[in-house]
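Hi Y.,

Following your request, here is the sequence exactly as I used it, all 283 residues.
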Amino acid sequence: MRFSIITPSFRNAEWLKLCIASVADQQGVEVEHIVQDAGSDDGTQEWLPKDSRVRAFIEKDEGMYDAINRGLRRASGDILAYLNCDEQYLPGALARVRDFFAAHPEIDVLFGDAILVDQHGAPLSYRRMVLPLRAHVRIVHLNTLTCATFFRRSVIERGHFFDLQWKVIGDGAWTDDLLRARVSMATLPEPLAAFAFTGANLGASARGAEEMKVLRGAAWKSALAPLLSLHHRWRKWKAGAYAPHAVLYALYTKESPGQRVAFSESRLGFDWPHQLATGATGS
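Below is the corresponding structure, written out as tokens. Let me know if you'd prefer a different format.
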């Protein structure tokens, strides 16, 4: 079972190096890492084409989702995913995903747990995933994280690429498309990836808010948001998402780009950092 991991890149050289390292050291799996760089002028072009761990393509694109689609069309793997520059796979993540798909041939999309970390890799929050519901995704927000999302090649063979009309909420629109098509999904309650909180939250931007209005459609639907949020939180409570988790993981950091650094926390909670309190992905 071969993996293809797509990373869209633009002016993120330091983070990209850590992301690449986290894919390259996955044990016991066959993986190709495709990096779609939009022509970074931060030095990326000097080293990326020479990095034998990746298949690098440097070309202009129409944004992140266009870059991901380009990578998906070039992918040769059986299991696909995309990993942003400021995200990393945890040790052994891909082997656990492979084992899950091998044991569950009926499942096409898998959502794993993830850890939110600060810019030095220290833990901030534990994110337990629950299966997305279409009404919640369309009206409130996408509750799964792409850094821990994996899907079979058959998903894109059926035409489920990212819709380029969306520049910010393409993940939510893509998941909505899969739910509408009744693609089979499951969750794996184990931490598979980490993503760094860098202070940017596109989902909470003005562009993101405008795109959500379009995705929602009829204005009356927004009145359902409080009820859907309560139902979603109940489902997360049942799944143990709000309980503290003991975590032990290792990441590459800007201070240690050549070797993973171990981190641990005995009671890592759910809460987002204060800076994300007003964002669209807090519940």
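Residues 8 and 67 are 6 Å apart (CA to CA).

Thanks again,
Q.
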